[in-house]
């Protein structure tokens, strides 16, 4: 996996796992791959991965069943979505608004662009 320099690797791993949950690639209350399998797949150090998994457990997205492995919680989808939203609001939105201001993009222009993009996406689903 290729990581960005501007964000800690363990948080990028949290993003990857959260995305798998929100996209429903991983289903609630199911077992996830082992730490060894995930570390190999993501090409990361075991300790870095453990830090990510501990954060996901503290957010009630993952739970450990002693001797069995890690499982998604029954609320993993909702909690992962909330975690992703919080991260988006805290990290990407301020930079986005700063860029908007620098480029003199108005909120009206942004709303028009959003509506146009939404219509294009809806028509491509038909």
TrEMBL record:
The family database entries (Pfam families) matched by this protein are listed as: GntR
Whether Hydrolase counts among this entry's keywords is no
The keyword Signal belongs to this UniProt entry's keyword annotation: no
What SUPFAM superfamilies does the annotation carry?
Winged helix' DNA-binding domain
Q: Which Gene3D superfamilies match?
A: 1.10.287.100, Winged helix-like DNA-binding domain superfamily/Winged helix DNA-binding domain (1.10.10.10)
- All copies of domain HTH gntR-type, residue ranges: 7-75
Which key words are in the record?
DNA-binding, Transcription, Transcription regulation
A GO term for molecular function: DNA binding
Q: Where are the transmembrane segments?
A: none
* Protein known as: DNA-binding transcriptional regulator YhcF (GntR family)
């Amino acid at each position: 996996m290729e990581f960005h320099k501007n964000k800690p690797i363990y948080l990028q791993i949290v993003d990857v796992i959260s995305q798998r949950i929100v996209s429903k690639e991983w289903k609630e209350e199911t077992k996830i791959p082992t730490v060894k399998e995930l570390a190999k797949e993501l090409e990361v150090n075991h300790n870095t991965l453990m830090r990510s998994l501990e954060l996901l457990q503290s957010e009630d997205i993952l739970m450990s069943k002693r001797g069995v492995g890690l499982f998604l919680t029954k609320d993993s989808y909702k909690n992962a979505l909330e975690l992703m939203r919080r991260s988006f609001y805290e990290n990407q939105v301020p930079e986005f608004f700063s860029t908007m201001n620098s480029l003199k993009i108005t909120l009206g222009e942004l709303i028009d662009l959003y509506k146009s993009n939404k219509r294009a996406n809806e028509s491509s689903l038909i």
